[in-house]
Amino acid sequence: MLLEPFEFGFFVRAIIAACLVGGLCGLMGVYIVLRGMSYIGHGLSHAIFGGAVVSWIMSINFFVGATLWGFLSALLIAWTTRKNPIGSDAAIGIITTASFALGIAIISRSQSFTRDFEASLWGSVLGVDNEELIAIAVVAAIVAIVFFVAYKLFLFATFDPDVAQFYGVPTAWVDTLFSLLLAGTIVVSMQVLGVTMIAAAVVIPPIVARLLTDSFRKMALLSTGIGVICAVAGIYISYFVDVSSGASVVLISATLFVAVLAWSKIRSRWPGSTQSAASLSQLPRESGGAID
Amino acid sequence: MLHPPELAHLHRPDPNARPVVELQGVTAGYNGSRVLQDVDLRVMPGDFVGLLGPSGSGKTTLLRTVLGAAQVQAGDVRVYDKPVRSRRNRAGYVPQLETIDWNFPVTVEEAVMMGRTMSNALFPWFRKQERELAYDMMERLGIASLAKRHIRQLSGGQQQRVFLARALVSSPELLLLDEPTSGVDVKTRDDVMHLLHDLNHAGVTIILTTHEINAVAVHLPRIVCLNGSIVADGPPHRVIAPHILREVYGAEMPVIQYQGMTMVAESAHFWIDRNGDDAEPLATVPDDSHRQPVISHVHTAPDNVPAHHHHQDEND
């Protein structure tokens, strides 16, 4: 009975997709949260929605067009923040909303577009086809390889960009590569989780991991694992409970967050315990660029 | 000796050597604002320079200009004879503790190892020799037992030593330190200053910023006084003078000689209020007995320093 869903090809594809996207968002999320860009997932998924519409109109492959659009948006955000006295939360708010509005404007010119993009808004993991699965796998593999190989560069550039640059770390390249990986991640993830659920997938796993460890390396590994577990559990449960898969994944993650937070609170009050990992007040401050 | 063994081969400066840091007519700041104006500075190999000045005088900006992290609006900045953005050299930087993100999940060991990032950049982990070098450095600085702790779980002095260790594991020939003695106790401050003097004796060129005139600046061979631009540059006995301090800090600060050291009596208000005479710069320790409680055991009283300022001493 519990293995029943695995008899369906679409479900197996969904579980594989969820596993990859969960891990991908969990790993990417570590850098996103530590760079104070918690709402980038939310914002960029909106921005990419605009790119998706434009690439549909120009008959460009969705993945190429949307990734390129997201990449340019991410670069523009990085540039705005770096060259002007504007916080990354505000930059995310302005650039991604403008891009989203562009998509909406184009769609509203012709009602027939609306249905084509509904999947991107809400996510449809159970409808993942082979082409999408391959795209997810490719992005996940690239992100994993880059973060593995350039681990030290990304750590230093995230912790202290100015000093890292002085020590010879090519921070401009690291930032550009990060923007590209970010765009790719959001493009493939929004097919599965949907524009509206992506923020939780990139923020909750790293924050839960941060509550459990003080080490960057362990945080990256834990966050990836938590992302995988929450995504798989969310999809699996959604099959039985008949809830939207994206919502199910986010609710599972949020429940885990509450449980780990409670546990870390209890642990810190345990007599004789030395609290090692972060308490909630020490967690990276989230940028408040809410868009909806 | 607390300095890395591989620095031992470095010798005292060669008089014909090229400057390590050279700023010519530099105006710099952030986002279009000017913090430093028309600064000329040459730092030679083996120099030990203290940047002194009030808050907002551009001490940190000058360091960040050398670092390549400030916006240079005019002039030329060269580090090891190369434009600041286009180099990779053996230089270490110890940031001000307040600028560190203390919530970032890094352990002491992870933070120290960052100093070795570029030694084998595209390899996910560090080689055994590099880990040993880092542990050796942490051992010398007395923080090896804290290696697995989060950087937030340390005292101010220990935190300072973590970032000093990060700078030293890169075997720097040039070391830049932003307020290395702020927020640490007297013992740690003395330890840090001894360590820096040892490194300097081994040939490391050092530039640091400080607020502490008596505890830090007067013990350095060269002080650069800043107030948006360079007001004075030279050894303590020439630079720590009332007319220069007045220009730098905008306040009367009496200077005395105490056991052969130049010192600033930092209770100017006491002097001025007691005497009801704030017009005259109190550069000497007068004979009046009622002034004695401020500084006891005054051995020598310097003459009033000549009225002319020595702008931009060329001491190379």
Query: Taking Cα atoms only, what radius of gyration of chain B do you get, to the nearest Å?
Result: 21 Å
The CATH architecture of one domain in chain B can be given as: 3-Layer(aba) Sandwich
- Write out the CATH superfamily name of one domain in chain B: P-loop containing nucleotide triphosphate hydrolases
- Tell how many strands the DSSP assignment of chain A holds: 0
Mean pLDDT of chain B: 78
Summarize the SSE layout with pairings.
The complex is a heterodimer of chains A (292) and B (316).
Chain A lengths: L8 H26 L5 H18 L4 H22 L4 H22 L4 H9 L7 H20 L1 H9 L1 H6 L4 H22 L5 H15 L3 H26 L3 H25 L23
Helix pairs in contact in A: 1-6, 1-9, 1-10, 1-11, 2-3, 2-4, 2-9, 2-10, 3-4, 3-9, 6-9, 10-11, 10-12, 11-12
Chain B lengths: L20 E10 L2 E11 L4 E5 L6 H9 L3 E9 L2 E2 L7 E4 L13 H6 L14 H13 L15 H13 L5 E5 L7 H16 L3 E6 L11 E5 L3 E5 L1 H4 L2 H8 L5 E4 L2 E4 L3 H8 L41
Parallel strand pairs in B: 3-8, 3-9, 6-7, 7-8
Antiparallel strand pairs in B: 1-2, 1-4, 4-5, 9-10, 11-12
Supply database-style keywords.
heterodimer; A: 292 residues; mainly alpha; 12 helices; disordered C terminus; B: 316 residues; alpha/beta; Rossmann fold; six-stranded mixed β-sheet; four-stranded antiparallel β-sheet; 12 strands; 24% helix; disordered N terminus
Model description:
The complex is a heterodimer of chains A (292) and B (316). Chain A has 292 residues and is mainly α. Chain A has 12 helices and no strands. Helix content of chain A is 75%, strand content 0%. The termini of chain A are far apart. The model of chain A is unreliable at 284-292 (pLDDT under 50). Chain B has 316 residues and is of the alpha/beta class. Chain B has a domain at 5-90 and 173-267 and 301-309: P-loop containing nucleotide triphosphate hydrolases (Rossmann fold), CATH 3.40.50. At the A-B interface, α7, α8 and α11 of A face α2 of B.
